[in-house]
Sequence to fold (569 residues):
Amino acid sequence: VADDHDPKETVPFPPRKRTTRTDVRAFVARLAREKAEAVSVVGRHLSETARNDIPALAARPQLQTMGVLDRLATIVGLQLTREPLYALTLAQLAVALSDQLPVDAYPIVSRAQARAVARKELGKALSFLGRHEESAQVFEEAQAETEEHGVLAHDRAIIRLNLAITYLDMARYADARPLLVECKEVFRNHGDTKLHGLSGFYEGLLLQRMHLYREARETYLLLIVSNVDLSAETRAALYQTIGLCSIELEDFEAAEENLTRAVRLHKSNGSPLEAVRAELGRGRLLIRQGLPEKGIKHLRPVRHQFLKHSLSEEAGICGLDMVEGMLLLGQNQQAESLSRTIINEFLAASLSTRAITALGYLAEAIAANEATPKHAVQVREYVLSLRTTPEREFTTLKLTTDGA
Amino acid sequence: MAGALRDRLLFVVVATRLAAYVLLVDLVTAFVQEERRSALWYAIGMAFGFTISSIVAALLCVQSGTCKCLNDQTGRRSVFTALRRSATVPAMEIKDEDLEAFFDEHFTALTDMAVGQFELSEEDAEDVANEILLATIFNLPRIDDIKPWLAGALAHALQHPQVEA
Fold:
């Protein structure tokens, strides 16, 4: 990496307070000691403190250490999927503690790094809870903490990756894309194949959400052929998304090849449910190929599997693919009946009322003989879009005869 | 101990599966000869043999820790979650006994690179090398290959001038 760098373009390292080898050793020794102590210190404080009083712990000097911050980051990571609100409280505590780290105890760069990491964890907790606006703001603060330190480029890139993912969830695609491109480059320069691959994956996802299927497919294909360290699960997911993009591009041969490969890989990875999701893609492919009867036959057991696992939303999505096929065959009665069944399933699972409204419109349109297969596609895409933009209004999406 | 147990389990798998295959042949023969009652008994025996064989094989799998299905994490967007989790590894993990060797090896490599490729003075090179090592301590658990990581950190550090402290 450094070989590509032209020395003439570099900026001379400016005069400033020197960081010596002694500073590094002292920091490492202190960190090791603090980390060893933090397990019991943090455990004791958290067990003795009521949850409402946790923010007040920020004033305790014995908790104002980087060892404690490290311990809290670990606990936040673990609690995020178990008790996200508790994780949020702890992440907020970590941010407050990071602001009170003793000035003379740590090197400047390490304090900045600790503050940035604490804010990054808080941003992730907020993002997990769907509080995307706040999350983006906190990630920007985290990024600002690293701005003055060139050696924190990798940390900054991780924060930007998280910010980009949050933007992706907020459908702010234009903001997300340059961040993903930039941090991918930083990870590549650091030889960090895992995060490079992850950034590439999100870049593909972004393009897919922007309906730029050709570009998305290229991005995914580049990831597969690159020497990025991909797990078998990731590889299977990539084949699956390539297959789905290929359907949209009407490249049916490639779609069949990649989806079949994804199904096989998911099965060998011991992920039967993921294999069912890839089978959903194969069913959709048959319908798009003009074989709706075969498609519906293929999708019936897939839908059954989703329902068996109480995945009502995915069963509904699958059902809408079947409705598309039925409308292609002119089986309006069956299509209407299935649409109403999906509504009942969504109601029973207390899913989005917006989705239910959209399905209701579709059922009525079918009953009035005004629906076309494109309408089923529109409603399916709307229901899918609610995952990332739950506030999106259905009224903005008109059921038009040309499907625009 | 574990090896002996594995050998015994393996023996049971092979023996029961062989027995089941023998019964399968008998079952087909009985069917051909229209001996319905014999066929029924052979079928029961065969099913029993395969069941025992499968249970023992599963035990063997668990015992050797190779059973992938035990690690199966289903659920929506599990792949995305797994991917994203790779960016959330808690920082600051380093073995004390490895520290000295780590610093010795990489401090020298970094300063050599800073002087040789980026034309820094010895003093500046040592300074930036120390800062990079400080920042690296935090990130060590996520680093697979330290050499390109440090080279990248150096290149980025020098493209990104620090302000006066």
Notes: Chain A touches chain B through 76 residues (CB under 8 Å).
